[in-house]
Design goal:
The structure holds 2 protein chains of 2 kinds. In chain A, a hairpin with a 5-residue loop joins strand 7 (422-423) and strand 8 (429-439). Mean pLDDT of chain A is 85; it is low at 1-45. Chain A starts with 35 loop residues before the first helix and ends in a 6-residue tail after the last strand. In chain A, helix 5 (159-175) crosses helix 9. In chain A, the strands form 4 sheets. In chain A, strands 6, 7, 8, 10 and 12 form a 5-stranded antiparallel β-sheet that branches. Chain A has a 4-stranded antiparallel β-sheet with strand order 11-9-13-14, with no helix packed on it. A 3-stranded antiparallel β-sheet of chain A has the order 1-2-3, with no helix packed on it. Chain A contains 17 helices and 14 strands. Chain A is an alpha+beta fold. Chain B is mostly helical. Chain B is 41% helix and 5% strand. In chain B, a hairpin with a 2-residue loop joins strand 2 and strand 3 (22-25). The longest helix of chain B has 25 residues, at 69-93. The chains are: A alpha+beta, B mainly alpha. Chain A binds chain B through residues 43, 49-54, 57-58, 416, 418-419, 422-427, 430, 432, 462, 465-466, 486, 488, 493, and chain B through 6, 8-13, 27-28, 30, 126-128, 130, 139, 141-144, 233, 236-238, 281, 283, 287, 301, 304-305.
């Protein structure tokens, strides 16, 4: 794969592979080593006019074989990956004791019974605003993060990034590091290569399967579903979900990778609107790096070259295959692996670190003009991030407040309007109502229903016969259930149309209650 | 076509049109896009073969799979029936008076009865079962029953109907017309007496006498009615055909009696049971009466309407 035209200084360990990526292209290679980016750029003015139609109108995807690197940002990426994947895979297995009438899974989306359990919190369908609130918080949370530290979400915590990173480590584990992988990709299909590919893709599949498998555990009792799944007794939807998620995980994380970030994801387009010149970005400091020149050339011609020695390490380690030295671009997910790579090279050749670094655009201008850069924390504490954070925290506090004051006893009342009232044999007037009484506790409770503000009114229900009509009635509501009751309310014959209220009170030490105002209908002329 | 040429900067063929010096490049569609397009054509051909597609003169082509929206509906209906099968069997097996002992079955029967009521009964009794005083359809929500309000009595009324010619003497009572029997003063007096039974007018001796001679045999001496022959109770506040003096006079001179079809002949027994449960659940359902012959002494709330009695 070597190129006879290749200058000697490019043969250093970190540069030998530059030509591999472009060796197959028809472009002239002479300038490739000096500036690899230039050769990939099309329609250069100096390019000779083509006489024939090009073979391909659309550039094929270039395989990315990013090189292993170690450094503080890489270690942080490991840490985030460990935490996020750990949370994802372990959460369904956590138990939480809710008593005999409710599931004991800490986090459970119980679609069949329309309940959402999260540790001590239980969300009912009518309390969906909690979920909506959390989603809004997640959205504004992204505003906070993006305005402060740019695309940190993309670089570290986005599921696409985490799983892509995982798959890239699998590549490295099976096929070796960058050079070995490039060699293998260009090698003909021997049995050895078939075996290696098969082995790697089975690991992909296994990861995909575990990913899809963990997902379904959030929707049913994890140990039971786990057993049923392998006993082939689980619901078809479980197998379909796992199959779909296995395929999407393998496709998106194993094969599409950076294409998802660059072509499919809308987020890089959106967040451009949230960043400004005070947001932290991964930046190449061209005023310090340019013009590029090798260590040797720089030693011969002091003062004529910048710090960048064009070793392309920053390009080789990039998981999305971009050249950060071309400036901020959509493919950059700000994972900062290029910072780790560049810092390592700068240390090796004895130049100060930070040629590629997290910096704000404002800082870049300041630094280019020779002033000292501001510390990075200044990007975090500024009005814009503060406003976002205040909104975010405000919603959070409101949700917490709502969570704190919500009661576990609720009632809704629907008057029957067909007919609105009923004359009884003795002349009294009866209205009927449909009551829905919610017991949101994980135990059965007695509920006392009472009439308030209806002179001489008595009630009975479809469960209690008319002989036991009284101003208050007690009904039992099962654990975590809504009980629908038809209530008949009867008032003496001289009753007029008037407002009154139902109250419901739990018969326990808490005496939680709810009150619903409604109307009693009577004939206009008694 | 004008002469095509290769655009130098991009190396792409032009389509050969030019507008004010602007040319259009003949950029082909992406390969994947074309393949998707071809696949949709292949899919469409397969679809046309497999499913009904081409409209012919009187019907569309049938398609290889034999699918039709009617057969799909029939399948769904069969599936729904199958799902209801065990419930219907249970309901068919249970004696209607035992229905209340099985709350779950009762609840489902009420739901089924509500649907059947909308289809079969609401035309006369109204969608809310409130009946009509003008037309003389009884209100089924209240606590007044012409023929009895426990499950067995309601079931009998729905099953066999009221005043059906085929029925063997049951529920056939007819109120005779008193047109010509009374003069105007007597008619006023007996009307006043009927009103006084429920406390809506003052009692009068003449009316009481006429009532005792002509009406008490069916409607009872105190106007308590007789469920055995469907004679309406007169000493309560509920009037089948209106409680004004004019309405009462009309009923004395030219009485009208309602008839109800025997639904047991039109509907299956399970539906009749469901209707029974629904009507019972409307709020006027009574406990089963102990078997007593003759005087309906156990009328509930009987004392409530008696305050107008002499």
């Amino acid at each position: 794969m070597g190129n006879p035209d290749q200058p000697d200084d490019a043969k250093r360990d970190w540069a030998v592979t530059v030509e591999d990526g472009i060796a197959k292209s028809n472009e002239p290679v002479s300038s490739a080593v000096a500036n690899p980016a230039a050769t990939t750029r099309r329609h250069e003015p100096h390019e000779p006019p083509r006489e024939t139609l090009p073979e391909k109108l659309y550039e094929a995807r270039k395989s990315i074989h990013n090189k292993r690197i170690d450094g503080p940002f890489r270690r942080f990426k490991w840490f985030v990956m460990l935490v996020t994947l750990g949370i994802y895979y372990v959460t369904p297995w956590l138990r939480w004791d809710r008593g005999p009438y409710a599931p004991d899974q800490a986090v459970l989306v119980d679609l069949a019974n329309r309940r959402f359990y999260m540790f001590g919190i239980e969300i009912w369908p009518h309390e969906f605003y909690f979920v909506a609130g959390l989603l809004i918080m997640a959205g504004i949370g992204l505003f906070v993060i993006t305005s402060a530290v740019g695309r940190a979400w993309c670089g570290y915590a986005c599921p696409q990034t985490v799983w892509t990173d995982l798959f890239q480590h699998i590549d490295r584990f099976v096929d070796g590091d960058r050079n070995a992988r490039i060699r293998l990709e260009n090698a003909p299909w021997t049995w050895g290569k078939v075996f290696r590919r098969g082995f790697k893709w089975s690991i992909y599949l296994a990861i995909g399967f575990v990913t899809g498998g963990a997902w379904i555990l959030y929707f049913a009792d994890a140990p039971t579903l786990f057993r049923d799944f392998f006993a082939l007794e689980a619901a078809p939807v479980a197998y379909i979900t796992v199959a779909v998620l296995t395929l999407t995980t393998v496709t998106l994380g194993g094969f599409m990778r950076e294409q998802v970030c660059i072509y499919m994801c809308p987020w890089p387009r959106i967040q451009t609107a949230m960043m400004d010149e005070k947001s932290l970005l991964v930046t190449y400091k061209d005023w310090r790096g340019e013009p590029r020149g090798s260590v040797k050339k720089a030693a011969k011609n002091p003062g004529q070259f910048g710090d960048c020695i064009d070793c392309t390490q920053c390009v080789q380690v990039c998981p999305t295959g971009i050249d950060i030295r071309e400036g901020p671009q959509i493919g950059c997910i700000t994972c900062a692996l290029c910072i780790d790579a560049c810092d390592k090279v700068m240390k090796d050749i004895g130049r100060p670190r930070g040629l590629i670094d997290y910096a704000t655009l404002e800082d870049c201008e300041r630094e280019a003009a020779g002033e000292a850069p501001k510390p990075a924390w200044r990007a975090l504490l500024r009005p814009r991030t503060m406003v976002y954070f205040t909104i975010w925290a405000g919603i959070g506090a409101a949700l917490l407040f709502a969570l704190g004051v919500r009661t576990h006893t609720e009632m809704t009342v629907a008057p029957d309007r067909n007919p609105p009232f009923m004359l009884m044999s003795d002349g009294s007037i009866r209205n009927s109502f449909t009551l829905k009484i919610r017991n949101m506790e994980s135990r059965p409770r007695d509920m006392e229903i009472a009439l308030e503000g209806l002179e001489g009114g008595v009630m009975w229900t479809d469960a209690i016969s008319r002989g036991e009509a009284a101003a208050t009635q007690t009904v039992t509501v099962a654990a975590d259930q809504v009980r629908t009751i038809r209530a008949y309310v009867m008032a003496p014959r001289d009753a007029k149309t008037q407002d009154f209220a139902f109250t419901v009170t739990s018969v326990d030490e808490q005496r939680e209650s709810d009150r619903v105002e409604t109307r009693f209908d009577a004939p206009e002329t008694p | 076509m004008a002469n095509k040429r290769i655009d130098q900067p991009t190396g792409t063929e032009t389509v050969g049109h030019e507008w004010d010096g602007i040319e259009e490049l003949n950029t082909p569609l992406p390969r994947w896009w074309l393949w998707t397009f071809y696949l949709t054509i292949i899919f469409a051909i397969g679809y046309v073969i497999a499913y009904p597609a081409w409209p012919m003169i009187d019907r569309a082509t049938a398609g290889m799979l034999g699918w039709s929206s009617r057969s799909a509906l029939a399948e769904e209906m069969t599936a729904a029936d199958r799902a209801q099968q065990s419930f219907r069997e249970q309901l068919a097996a249970i004696d209607v008076v035992k229905l209340r002992d099985n709350p779950e079955l009762m609840q489902r029967a009420v739901a089924g009865g509500a649907a059947a009521f909308k289809v079969n009964c609401s035309q006369c009794h109204g969608s809310g079962a409130a009946g009509s005083q003008t037309l003389g359809y009884p209100n089924l929500n209240d606590d007044d029953w012409l023929w009895g309000g426990d499950l067995a009595a309601i079931h009998y009324s729905i099953d066999r109907g009221i005043r059906q010619p085929d029925d063997n003497e049951e529920r056939q009572s007819v109120m005779p017309s008193f047109d010509g029997a009374f003069d105007s003063a007597q008619l006023d007096a007996v009307t006043q007496h009927v009103l006084s039974l429920s406390g809506n007018a003052d009692a009068n001796a003449l009316g009481a006498q006429i009532y005792a001679d002509n009406c008490a045999a069916c409607h009872g001496p105190a106007g308590q009615g007789d469920r055995a022959q469907g004679a309406p109770r007169l000493n309560d506040q509920i009037w089948l055909r209106g409680g004004t003096a004019a309405a009462i006079k009309r009923q004395i001179l030219n009485p009208r009696m309602g008839a109800m079809p025997a639904w047991g002949e039109r509907l299956d027994p399970v539906t009749v049971k469901m209707l029974t449960a629904y009507v019972y659940s409307l709020g006027g359902g009574e406990e089963a009466q102990p078997e007593t012959s003759g005087e309906p002494a156990t009328q509930p709330q009987a004392e409530a309407g008696n305050d107008g009695q002499p």
